[in-house]
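A quick aside before the break. I want you to see a complete sequence-to-structure record at least once, exactly as it would be stored in a machine-readable document. Don't worry about memorizing anything.
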Amino acid sequence: MLVYENITNKMLAGRKQLAILIDPDKTEDKALDSIVQQSVDADVDYFFVGGSLLINNHMDAVIKILKQAKDIPVVLFPGNTLQMSWKADAILFLSLISGRNAEMLIGRHVISAPYLKLSPLQVIPTGYMLIESGRPTAVSYMSNSDPIPADKDDIAMCTAMAGEMLGLKLIFMDAGSGAINPVSNTMISHVKQSIGVPLIVGGGIRTPEQAKETSTSGADVLVIGNAIEKNPSLISEISQAIRP
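That is the input. The structure line, written in tokens, reads:
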């Protein structure tokens, strides 16, 4: 089944989904083998692959290891137009709708479109919303854009609605890598109630309790990254928390 259809069908069935974010710059092969096995055991739904920067050439090698888990799709979550690989299953074609940087709204998409047109990747148009998290993050720095203030639920809600009206098929609310605070439960709830497309939420989720609150508030897909780099056992704990 294609990735987008899988996300949508599980949302409609009321099944909460878990994505493990892998940064090729930060993950060694031995650690990755462990993450793959724990992800299989915990019934993880997706691997997201990407980062704000890629300072090595390990993306294809990382995807090859992730592909050992044949039932877990690999989805590119690119930080720039260089983070491409035909070895993945799909790509989140991110438009940074929370900012006003034209390069992140459409400019870089024009550059990558011919490549993606030729690729076997499923291209999933995704409205990417960066949410203020208590400190500047790599995403805000690299995108040269201001995040939506953490207490402005109305701005987040209207931004998500506009993204859906523009035809974007997913909304991704992200506090950013290394966030101090996750996206607030009230903001997640307001956004979820205002859209009909699946809602992805990531950044700053470090505990099963936070994951459950995020899920209960309306996130259809949770994304966990930094936390499992330090403690891979969280994969199972978070999976159980959101899918009791």
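Two observations worth writing down. The chain is about 40% helix and 15% strand. The longest strand covers residues 122-130. We'll return to this after the break.
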